[in-house]
Amino acid sequence: MKRLHSLFATLALLCLFGNPVAPHGSAQDVTIEVKTDNDSTVKVKKKGKSKPPFAGQRPEVNVAILLDTSNSMDGLINQAKSQLWNIVQEFAKAKKNGKTPLLRVSVFEYGNTRLPASEDYIRQVAQLTDDLDKVSEALFALTTSGGDEYCGAVIAESVKRLDWSSEPNAYKAIFIAGNEPFDQGSVDFQGACKNAIQSGIVVNTIHCGNYQQGVDGKWQKGAQLAEGKFMNINQDEKVTHIPAPQDKIIIELNTSLNQTYLWFGSQDKREGYALNQMQQDSNAGSSLSSRALIKSSPLYRNVGRDLVDTFEENPAAIVKLGDAELPKELQGLTSKQRLARIEEMSKRRAEIKSQLADANRQREAFIADQQAKQAASSSEVTLGDAFKAAVQEQLQTSGFEVE
């Protein structure tokens, strides 16, 4: 087993950094032979074209979403739930030097009387995480209850509590949405916003109501202090869903995509990952097509949870797992058989993602055409629209290329 571990470590280095004699940026195939514990040989072929053109650390994107969950904000929470995957798509369109960003999202709620007054009615619902299923789960667990909304306090807490990226060129942003005056509470919003931008974190403010009320309520001032964007939305506006002919095939492909996941860890964890993935598919409702497209992108990653994603990033990691931590279909197999199964699932997943990309191009063309026809009767601005306006502008300012 020690010999196998050593050989897998060599495999990991070669897979992660490519063929050392190949020109930088080339897409040559790499075939590696690995001897297992029973002296059989496993050939692992890594196609250069099957991996994104990354040569080092992915650019980081950290986003904290701070939502007012007081009584009047049911519409806001519903918009957040229904538009999550459309919002994430804005980051999926971005690249920096050809690299897709590593996205981590956090969620806070504030202004809910069910939360302790001693903590300014604030709760961190999800830490900064790349597990987008966890983010979706956190949003769908939110409920409203009238209270006092302390914007300065929740901004200060999000800056202090979260493990924000230390990368100098990371895009770090807070999006705070609510409707009460921005200057409520004992924590000075001006100091909180200034501290955020001094930490490299932009604060975007989304006022639920008309423009002038947002200005008078200091929402605009908060954004100006932290170099962010001030926006106002109608939180009660119903999100318009445009069905497309491609939705059926995308949903079918999503089901097939789920079947390529090889969850690992304790039995409870494996079952939890699989169930939560399916639950968030269900929660997506009419936005399932948008969610499926994110699942086919590099933003949806399950390193440390799924063997395929983990193997792509660190092939040596799988030898550290005990038999009981593996999916049932891999338990009792030889090392060679396990590798073959992972490679099979990796290949299958890549095929499904390619089919999803083709379906998406057709779907986007159809929806763009329908939106153009409906332009004269366009709806008011929603949470998703506000995110799109700020994200596209700020990512470009941060050096990203946005489609």
TrEMBL record:
Leader peptide range in chain numbering: 1-27
Coiled coil spans: 342-369
Record's protein name: VWFA domain-containing protein
SUPFAM superfamilies from the UniProt entry: vWA-like
Keywords: Coiled coil, Signal
Matching CDD domains: vWFA
Organism for this UniProt entry: Neorhodopirellula pilleata
Domain called VWFA: residue spans: 60-243
